[in-house]
Design brief:
single chain; alpha/beta; two-stranded antiparallel ribbon; 10 strands
Length: 335
């Protein structure tokens, strides 16, 4: 289904409905930065969305503005086309929540976010207490603490991305993009670079089938506005701040809904200590954290993207999320 935002964007909301209604609260899934629906539904096997549907949840995967099948306003070419976190948190996700609750008749929904998708849900959860039944954040760091978590290699990569942002300098300022599709070799021209980035930063390739990384590079990556990257790099450099689009990080204690956060033991985008730092800010009655890795009894050490599409994710990560959703939903039904 396609749902309109108040600023002219039309968002793609992909529904995975169970064959028989079960009465469970629906589930909204929100992808991360530069991603799209494929991170939650790559194919029938690597699909958290289908796995959650199989347990009776009416499941919706949102594609944020600029991603996947979401469509810009008709006047897109005549107006600035930049956006940042506030557009996601104040327009896109609230619009999706309203559409899902209206379509299902439910009063609350469970929310699952990967990477920046989790940040968006935290920001929404600080405000929309009555509509959020639970939040599951997969590979979602506390940006204000991330600067201390990055090693020299990760810092160099962030600097590389920062240097690449002027690559679209010949376009109007409001329409500049970080050329991630080109950087990751979506056309296959720079696939060695794509492989190095995946190996060093995006995923633990030993936990990924090669075709999975290729498909994500070809179909699951989108360019993003310079504004969004600038916001992130500035916030990471400055540390925690009660101002700006990431002010929600100073208000995480206000989230009352049950929260479950997962990290990958070798995740270089959201290192475990940065994910744990977000959880440490929360004081709700049901806040959980699980690191996925060999030391915790898992089959492999998880990176960032492979928390969703890794070889072992359907057997190890998906059940963790589904069990949490079932438990929380069962508690809601008992009230």
């Amino acid at each position: 289904m396609m749902v309109p935002c108040d600023d002219g964007w039309t968002l793609a909301l992909h529904r995975f409905a169970p064959k028989v209604p079960t009465g469970k609260s629906p589930v909204l899934m929100v992808h991360g930065i530069a991603a799209n629906r494929l991170h939650f539904d790559l194919d029938p096997h690597y699909s958290l969305a289908r796995a959650v549907r199989a347990r009776g949840f009416d499941t919706y995967v949102l594609e944020l503005r600029g991603a996947g099948l979401s469509c810009p306003p008709q006047s897109f070419g005549l107006r600035p086309s930049s956006w940042g976190l506030r557009d996601y948190t104040e327009r896109d996700v609230p619009t999706a929540i309203s559409a899902i609750l209206e379509a299902t008749g439910a009063s609350q929904l469970h929310a699952v976010g990967h990477s920046m998708g989790g940040m968006i849900l935290f920001a929404v959860g600080v405000r929309a207490q009555s509509e959020i039944a639970s939040i599951t954040a997969v590979g979602t760091p506390l940006l204000g603490a991330l600067n201390q978590s990055l090693n020299a290699r990760e810092r160099r990569l962030m600097n590389l991305v920062a240097r690449l942002t002027p690559a679209a300098r010949f376009t109007p300022p409001g329409q500049r993009r970080v050329p991630l599709r080109r950087l990751l070799g979506a056309a296959g021209k720079v696939m060695p670079l794509s492989q190095r980035l995946a190996d060093n930063f995006l995923a633990n390739v030993s936990n990924c089938e090669p075709w999975v990384l290729t498909k994500l590079a070809n179909e699951g990556i989108h360019d993003i506005p310079v504004q969004l990257i600038t916001e992130i790099t500035q916030h990471v450099a400055a540390g925690a701040s009660p101002f700006g689009p990431y002010a929600y990080e100073a208000a995480l204690h206000g989230i009352d809904a049950p929260v479950f956060a997962l990290s990958g033991s070798v995740d270089r985008i959201a290192p475990p200590n940065s994910v744990a730092a977000a959880i440490a800010e929360m004081v709700g009655p049901d806040v959980r954290y699980r690191e996925m890795g060999i030391a915790q009894g898992d089959r492999c050490d998880y990176g960032h993207v492979d928390l969703l599409v890794g070889v072992n994710a359907p057997d190890e990560v998906y059940p963790q999320i589904i069990d949490f959703l079932l438990e929380v939903d069962g508690t809601l039904a008992e009230r």
